[in-house]
Amino acid sequence: MILSQLALLRKCNPELPFHSVSDPAFRPFGRVVDFDAAALIQACQESCPMPAGGVCYERSIPALEALRSGDSVLRVLRGESDTEIGCCWGYNHRMDALEYHRSSEHNIAVTDLVLLLAPQQAMEGFELDASCVQAFFVPAGTTVELYATTLHYAPCQANDGGFCSIVVLPRGTNAPLRYPAPADDGDGRLLFARDKWLICHNENRELIDQGAYPGIHGANYEVKY
């Protein structure tokens, strides 16, 4: 089933290099983690009903963090560091933007989904050619670690039902900034939220109007299925 769905995604998206997260092509970006997430997935399905449209993100969901599985996330995935467990879910087809953090991010696929990824090392200053982006199919139930140098953003859906992904990060990540971004210091111009450096596609007026840097040039990929 996974191979047939991947083959269909490749056929529908010939302009994108399309892989599974189990392929060697994923190794520079992250790794698949053997982790029992069944209880977290069930709680997420109960706590995060699909919206009528668009994408929702909650960085910290008490119903997920209170589970015994939440303790396993803290110990097994995050090495006892202070951790938030949230969710990104809804309907999305386009890349639109890419972000990075100063630490790894864990994603637990509640549904099948597609991640659009690029290496931070491919950036020229604050700019990125979209040809550096690759697509990775993540089957439902899979836990992946995305390395800190992996540019990523909201997943894309792999079918009409939308997507849902549990997101595990250091506590406070993606919270609003407490101070103005240090625009003249390193990559401070890209700082969009706490521990969140972001570049958007140069056609994305909504994010540009919010202060995002229009650093992605080329195709704003749309995932078809």
Describe this structure in words.
With 225 residues, this protein is an alpha+beta fold. Helices cover 18% and strands 32% of the residues. The protein has 5 helices and 16 strands. The strands form 3 sheets. Strands 2-10-6-13-4-3 form a 6-stranded antiparallel beta sheet.
Topology overview:
Elements: H1 2-12, E1 18-20, E2 30-33, H2 38-47, E3 55-58, H3 62-65, H4 68-77, E4 83-90, E5 97-100, E6 105-109, E7 113-119, E8 128-129, E9 134-138, E10 143-146, E11 150-151, E12 156-157, E13 163-170, E14 191-193, E15 196-201, H5 205-209, E16 213-217
Parallel strand pairs: 1-9, 8-16, 15-16
Antiparallel strand pairs: 2-10, 3-4, 4-13, 5-15, 6-10, 6-13, 7-9, 7-11, 7-12, 14-15
Helix amount = 10-25%
Beta-strand residue fraction:
25-35%
Shape: globular
**Rg, Cα atoms, Å:** 17 Å
Count the strands? 16
**How confident is the prediction overall: mean pLDDT?**
96
